[in-house]
Design a protein that fits this description.
By secondary structure, the protein is of the alpha/beta class. It has 3 domains: about 10-55 and about 210-290 and about 385-430, FAD/NAD(P)-binding domain (3-Layer(bba) Sandwich); about 90-205, Guanine Nucleotide Dissociation Inhibitor, domain 1 (Orthogonal Bundle), CATH 1.10.405; about 290-380, Polyamine Oxidase, Chain A, domain 2 (Alpha-Beta Complex). About 30% of the residues lie in helices and about 25% in strands. The chain contains 12 helices and 20 strands. It has helices spanning about 15-30, 70-80, 125-140, 150-155, 160-175, 185-200, 215-225, 265-275, 275-280, 345-360, 415-430, 445-454, and strands at about 10-15, 30-35, 50, 60, 65, 85-90, 90-95, 100-105, 205-210, 230-235, 240-245, 245-250, 255-260, 260-265, 290-300, 310-315, 320-325, 330-335, 370-380, 400. The strands form 5 sheets. It has a 7-stranded mixed sheet with strand order 8-7-16-17-18-15-19, with helices on both faces. The chain has a 5-stranded parallel sheet with strand order 10-2-1-14-20, covered by helices on one side. α1 packs parallel to α7 (about 215-225), α1 packs parallel to α11 (about 415-430) and α2 (about 70-80) crosses α11. The longest helix has 16 residues, at about 125-140. The chain binds flavin-adenine dinucleotide. Flavin-adenine dinucleotide (FAD) binds next to α1, β2, α8, β15 and β19.
């Protein structure tokens, strides 16, 4: 007779970064995990595809992380793929064809380590620099809790200039929040500048995957779960109802009885997956209205290697970041807050990306092949007041928890937010804190943390 498992069986619905993180954390906590993903591959929004006619996996959109993304880095360590991230502690930047960079002074304590680096930013006049120094000082000394009832632009007040609006603030806020300073809550802007830039020497280091995202978010977690006794069901949308001895989860022809369920889905997907009786009991958590922000990702292949830095941020441009891959034969680019790109075909998006690149590198040759896609619902727009409306993992149904970048993690819609939500959902089921600590405060912030603990 086959041995009967006494492990609690947890079904995770949704194989994006939130679901993957929950599945790994719950497996480590001793649960028997079944992960169900409706698409053919895991990874959700952070996945890869093979564009028509191109026999290579590329990402729907290049994704980056920061040193401050401790939960996401924890996931990569568990999966054994941490060394597939290249870390950049020197960020080339461009304003038109003027080159500059953001570079820290490692011998100085945070936040002073970045002060000198501001002098290296391109395209700024002495007045812009003086205004930026005043703004960064205001950011550096702002005491939490940071206000969620006004935009970042309103919070900054006069401490900006038109050049900074179109350049420094726009590049950083668009890349992290997919929103402008006029749209984003001051709370999220300050969270980024403080925890993602200033709090610790490594916080702002930019992590760029050296492989397609599917290696990190599909191949590695699938193999990890198989090695640790988990099961992965691909290509089937799951649905959940309550049965006599637990949750009944259906995925295609398969039916699973589960003690616990993690819904690592967007609110709309979760409503579709739940039996109406369960939706009613989950309550208003799934009713949160999230305004969608769009992003375009494009890839351009060249006949000969192009001589660009491995990564470049663009000031005052439709594109935010440019990544050099395949020895310079491919550039991958990102355009955040990409509403103006709506209606363009993939070829039209790639053409627009190339024209933007030419404004910064006038001698860039024409690409020999391109691929592009625009994700209309890439992220939620972190408007003032949103944080209080994001639900936590616990629902009105015991054993049924929520995860997803949109849930209440305090973070914007990022892979780190998704990873944090997965850990929060796992913590709620296990009844123990499985969260990963933030980077410790350094420099001046170490002193202020000590003072505020007293
Ligand atoms: C173009 C773009 C660029 C981005 N750039 C960055 C970046 O550079 N850095 C960063 O940190 N973040 C970035 N993000 C945000 C980041 O990708 C997301 O915040 C994160 O991946 C969301 O993960 P998630 O697990 O919460 O949701 P999702 O990735 O949406 O995962 C939900 C999953 O559930 C599946 N599903 C739906 N219904 C069912 C069902 N009934 N049964 C089973 N499965 C189901 C879906 O197929 C999907 O795989 C970007 C996003 C986009 C779209």
């Amino acid at each position: 007779m086959a041995p009967v498992s006494t492990l609690r069986h947890t079904v995770v619905l949704g194989g994006g970064v939130a679901g993957l993180t929950a599945a790994v954390a719950l497996t480590r906590a001793g649960r028997l995990v079944t992960l169900i993903e409706r698409r053919a591959e895991l990874g959700g929004k952070a996945g890869s595809y093979r564009p028509p006619g191109i026999f290579q996996w590329v990402d729907h959109c290049p994704h980056v992380l920061l040193g401050a993304c401790t939960s996401q880095r924890w996931l990569y360590e568990q999966l054994g793929v941490g060394d597939l991230i290249s870390w950049h502690d020197r960020l080339p930047l461009r304003a038109g064809d003027e080159a500059g960079e953001l570079l820290a002074q490692p011998s100085l304590p945070p936040p002073f380590n970045l002060a000198q680096g501001l002098l290296g930013l391109p395209g700024l006049t002495p007045r812009d620099l003086a205004t930026l120094a005043a703004a960064m000082t205001k950011i550096s000394v702002a005491r939490p809790p940071w206000p969620d009832d006004q935009t970042f632009a309103a919070w900054l007040g006069p401490l900006t200039t038109p050049t900074l609006d179109r350049g420094f603030w726009s590049l950083l806020l668009r890349s992290v929040l997919n929103a402008s300073a006029d749209e984003a809550s001051a709370r999220y802007g300050l969270l980024f500048f403080r925890h993602g830039l200033l709090h610790h020497r490594d916080a702002w280091h930019l992590g760029v995957p050296r492989c397609p995202l599917r290696t990190l978010h599909h191949v590695a977690p699938r193999a990890w779960l198989a090695r640790h006794g988990g099961q992965v069901v691909l290509g089937q949308a799951g649905s959940v109802a309550l049965g006599p001895s637990g949750f009944v989860v259906r995925a295609g022809a398969e039916e699973f009885v589960a003690d616990e369920v993690v819904l690592a889905l967007t609110p709309t997907q979760a409503r579709r997956a739940l039996d109406p009786a369960l939706t009613a009991r989950v309550g208003g958590a799934l009713d949160v209205d999230l305004e969608a922000g769009s992003i375009v990702g494009a890839h351009l292949w060249f006949a000969e290697p192009v001589d660009l830095p491995p990564v470049t941020g663009l000031f005052d441009a439709e594109l935010d970041w440019v990544f050099r891959h395949d020895g310079g034969r491919r550039l991958a680019v990102v355009a955040s807050t990409a509403d103006a790109w709506q209606g363009l075909s993939p070829a039209g998006q790639a053409e627009r990306a190339w024209r933007t690149l030419r404004q910064h590198w006038p001698r860039l040759p024409a690409p020999v092949a391109t691929a592009a896609c625009r994700e209309a619902r890439a992220t939620f727009v972190p408007r003032p007041g949103l944080e209080a409306r994001r639900p936590g993992p616990v629902t009105g149904v015991p054993g049924l928890v929520l995860a997803g970048a949109w849930t209440a993690t305090g973070w914007p819609a990022t892979m780190e937010g998704a990873a944090r939500s997965g850990l929060a959902a796992a913590s709620a089921l296990v009844g123990a804190d499985l969260s990963v600590p933030d980077l410790p405060a350094q420099g001046v912030y170490r002193l202020t943390c000590r003072t505020s603990r007293r």
